[in-house]
Amino acid sequence: MSKELSFDRAANQMIELAHKKNYEIVWDRLKEQQPQCGFGQLGVCCRNCVMGPCRIDPYGEGPQKGVCGAEADTIVARNLVRMIAAGAAAHSDHGRRPAMLLKEVAEGKNTHYEIKDEGKLKEVAKRLGIDVKDKDKFQIAKEVADVALNDYGKQDSKPIRFLEGYAAKKLKEKWLKIEESLYQNTGKIFGVLPRNIDREIVDIMHRTHIGVDNHPLSIIMQGIRASLGDGWGGSLIATECQDILFGTPKVHAVYANLGVLKKDRVNLVIHGHEPVLSEQIVAAAQDPELIEYAKSKGAKGINIAGMCCTGNEILMRHNVPVAGNELHQELAVITGAVEAMVVDVQCIFPALANLSKCFHTKFISTSDQALFPGAMHVQFEEDNAEEVARRIVKIAIDNFENRDESKVNIPEENKEALVGFSVEQILSALGGNVTPLVEAIKQGKIKGVVGIVGCNNPKVKQDYYHVNLAKELIKRDILVIGTGCWAIALAKAGLLSVDAAKEAGEGLKSVCEALNIPPFLHMGSCVDCSRILVLAAGLADYLDVDISDLPLFGSAPEWMTEKAVSIGTYFVASGVPVHLWPVPPVLGGKEVVKILTQTAKEVFGGFFVIEENIQKTVDIMENHILEKRKSLGI
Ligand code: BF8
Known about the structure:
Blueprint lengths: L8 H13 L4 H7 L5 H5 L2 E2 L7 E2 L16 H35 L11 H10 L9 H17 L7 H6 L2 H18 L10 H11 L8 H31 L5 E5 L9 E7 L2 H11 L2 H9 L5 E6 H10 L4 E3 L4 H6 L5 E4 L8 H6 L4 E4 L10 E2 L7 H15 L15 E5 L3 H7 L5 H8 L5 E5 L11 H12 L2 E5 L1 H9 L13 H10 L4 E3 L6 H15 L8 E5 L5 H12 L4 E3 L9 H15 L3 E3 L3 H19 L2
Parallel strand pairs: 4-5, 4-7, 5-6, 7-8, 8-9, 11-12, 11-14, 12-13, 14-15, 15-16
Antiparallel strand pairs: 1-2, 3-10
Helix pairs in contact: 4-6, 4-9, 4-10, 4-23, 5-6, 5-10, 6-10, 9-10, 10-22, 10-23, 11-16, 19-25
Bound molecules: FE(4)-NI(1)-S(5) CLUSTER with Oxygen (BF8).
FE(4)-NI(1)-S(5) CLUSTER with Oxygen binds next to helix 13, helix 20 and helix 23.
């Protein structure tokens, strides 16, 4: 039975061990939760006031209204946009941190970090309309950081400047027209363009309070507005400021899966999302003094491995291996070889605290926003960065002698993966601009591009959809790009290699071989979905069309987080249809389902599709791509 829980051999091996030894893991807790609440699954329960909680009877036999009179669609829409609010908040709050750090570095207030990519800084400044002439990098960085921070806090009604500077020309025109036409048709104001990243999230919380907005379309439009503030705002700011501070990723090879943990070394797994700390830990682990210290404790050295999106951030910029994606976090501890599991924010199971106690592993939290009962807390701030990073590495080294060799079980799986495909690197592989990609698309060697993002979810076999959906797409000459836990799934499956193109259709294979690139491109962490937006905007502007005219599709086939809802929504609102599996909690609201699957298509060109079957999903994607190719006359 255990064998069916993951598509990854290493995972199945560890799951089996966990069950044999009675270590509780995520799949056991999912089983304990069965049957899960049907009202919750349909999105028809409301806890927004204490006249409730209320729920709507989906069979039409019981109550059809909450105590306040809210009907199913209002409740479903409110619940959905609250998910978007949380997801956009997580990404955007992440983005605020490197933006503030950039400002401090520019003003000389923080010397722990530096501006590593001046070229990127100037590119970002240019996009934002900042004149760089006769200014040094610190002046430019200060102005870029000011624009970014202002996008979080300005009070006027103009769209945020990052969106103005990066979104495709025709897309911006379309959004303005959408606002006008919806107003003319209904006499109601439906804002689409984000005025301020934080404000759109606050607006959702206000609007979904009891007795405020009850109109499903109006509520969902605000969700769209906040999601655009995430994709073209908070996430984009995270990506761009991190590239400026830590370097824009370049193509290189790393190793992936639990086999990257080393029996004879001090292993630190760094898990979460924000690279501000992990950058420093990577540096500390290379410090000869600390390496000597590790040796004095009987280890051969210090081994850093990433997990989830912190893993993606450091593997994109350094030669740091990744131990796994979201469902690997507990399995890494079960190897018995992890001296420290260091976490920052997002996607971290609180269960790690108890599980770590079965081993010698120190579970170390570092963010004042993410505390875990039972964890050791080492507070990290940007102005004590080096010291904290060294302290954490030292805690791990000191813990090496507590390792119980009889509990060490490291699976052998360890695959090489080509990573680091920032937009800049994709363009450089193409010879400096998008022309060769457009030509390959025009000639039909590449029929279209699908972006796959998102998580693992124990409700589906781990990595199964990620790997098999991607493999089916390349057979049909569809290039696959992506981020997050999808990218780690492909890395673990050994598919981020030029060799993987052998399984692609003839056209795509010839392009990959000519450019020496895999048919699957790892573009980074989940905030780096902004890189996909930037690439799509570049293609649209080059062809002078709207993004919705391009042969593109998106998918989050194993999604589970609220962040994924925000990502899916900003892609749809930017004109890219998005496939989802599992089903989001919206089926209890017929009007909401119609808005997401039909109205969105009419208004934005993007729409949501829910489908479990991989072949059917690929058919839907290919048909859309062929339709778009036909409309473009190619
Ligand atoms: O931001 S893919 S499980 S790790 S939410 Fe989380 Fe989902 Fe993984 Fe990264 Ni993204």
